Amino acid sequence: MKKRLQWILWAALAVLLIGGGSGLALAENGDVRGLRGTVPLNGSDQAAEPNRWMPDSHGLPRNFLQQPPLVPHQVDGYKIDLRQNKCLTCHSWSKARETRATKISLTHFRNRFGTELSDVSPQRYFCTQCHVPQKDAKPLVDNTFKPVDAM
Ligand code: HEC
Ligand code: HEC
């Protein structure tokens, strides 16, 4: 019984060694590429060029009917928390005229039960949940989305 257990342990060790060894060989052959490419683990890589925010512009095209419009300006430092909502200092109905920002639409005053509220619905309070600013980054994967119906 003891011998048999010993044998099993040896076999397990052999499998581990062979498996680990062939993994190493693959990495050396360049068949397996990590995110670091060919830069060795103890080497230092060049810092990636940071993607920049797109310059401020006027409204960006929407790809489908229900799409929340993309944010055509930078939003760095625009806080949205319990006490303040920077977006609303321009986009609320009371400020939109003087700031020339687009008013939030009436849908933003409706709660999930369809009740019309006199202020922005809590559901719509965290604007950047749906409205995202844009960077000049190359997409990581191709997007083949096509809208069913052009507006
Ligand atoms: C300083 C004022 C200001 C602040 C603060 C501001 N915006 Fe804007 N925003 C504008 C103006 C002005 C426009 C219109 C740009 C144009 O079309 O000329 C605009 C446009 C937009 C649009 C495009 C609307 C459309 O119909 O295409 C979205 C979406 C938007 N902003 C979201 C946000 C969000 C989200 C925040 C907070 C993170 C925010 N904005 C903060 C001034 C502001
Ligand atoms: C749950 C998602 C969601 C959240 C949160 C949200 N929005 Fe929107 N927003 C939309 C959608 C969808 C549209 C387009 C359809 C519509 O007008 O309802 C839109 C439209 C807009 C428009 C364009 C209105 C027009 O007349 O063309 C502005 C401006 C805007 N949102 C600003 C904001 C701001 C500011 C906030 C935060 C206070 C906010 N949104 C929060 C989804 C959202």
| CATH homology group of the largest domain | Flavocytochrome C3, Chain A
Report the count of strand segments: 0
Q: What overall geometry do the principal axes of the alpha carbons give? A: elongated
> What CATH first level of the largest domain would be assigned?
Mainly Alpha
Roughly what fraction of the amino acids lie in strands? under 5%
Q: State the distance separating the first and last CA atoms.
A: 77 Å
Helix proportion: 10-25%
Instruction: Return the string of H and E elements.
Output: HHH
Low-confidence stretches: 21-27
> The biggest beta sheet, please?
none
What's the helix count?
A: 3
Q: What is the number of independent domains?
A: 2
Q: What brief labels describe this structure?
A:
mainly alpha, 151 residues, Flavocytochrome C3, Chain A, domain 2, binds heme C
Quick description:
With 151 residues, the chain is an all-alpha fold.
Report on the architecture of this protein.
By secondary structure, the chain is mainly alpha-helical. Helices cover 24% and strands 0% of the residues. Mean pLDDT is 84; it is low at 21-27. It binds heme C (HEC) (2 copies). One heme C (HEC) binds next to α2.
Topology:
Layout (H helix, E strand, L loop, with lengths): L1 H28 L58 H4 L4 H4 L52
Bound molecules: heme C (HEC) (2 copies).
The site of one heme C (HEC) has 20 residues, from helix 2.
